[in-house]
Write a structure and sequence with these properties.
138 residues; mainly alpha; two-stranded antiparallel sheet; single chain
């Protein structure tokens, strides 16, 4: 187990960009798992949202859809990790939920590279904080 000094140094050494990416992902993940009420998008298993994961249809932090809530859905650890997202089922369910055109837009973004700027990450963080507040009001 690393000492507290080691942990502090590690956090301090992370760039501002990395810290903001981590924070934006944490908020996005919580929002998606709570939005979906802890129900796995691919297999339908319900659990406490805290024990579920947020699984991407299109993977990759450098895609322009990394934080897109249509690209990220609640998944149980089995589907997300052990079945690598169970993408065939994931895609079918996305098509049913959003339509083929929306899924095609997600697939088109698959090979596009996007570098999230600091300002954009701050906007994403603010947006997900607001979305979480709205969920809290329900």
């Amino acid at each position: 187990m690393p000492s507290n000094n080691t942990l502090r140094k590690t956090r301090k050494n992370k760039s501002k960009h990395t810290r903001l990416m981590d924070k934006a992902w944490k908020l996005c993940s919580e929002y998606v798992r709570r939005r979906d009420d802890g129900v796995c998008f691919t297999c339908g298993k319900k659990d406490d949202w805290k024990r579920q994961q947020a699984g991407h249809f299109i993977h990759g932090k450098s895609t322009p859809i990394y934080f897109n809530p249509k690209n990220v859905n609640c998944q149980c650890p089995r589907c997300n990790k052990w079945l690598s997202g169970d993408l065939a089922i994931y895609e079918r369910k996305l098509q049913k939920k959003y339509g083929i055109d929306e899924v095609d837009k997600l697939l088109d973004a698959k090979n596009k590279i996007h570098y999230y700027k600091i300002k954009e990450l701050n906007e994403i963080i603010a947006d997900y904080k607001q979305k979480l507040e709205l969920l809290n009001e329900k």
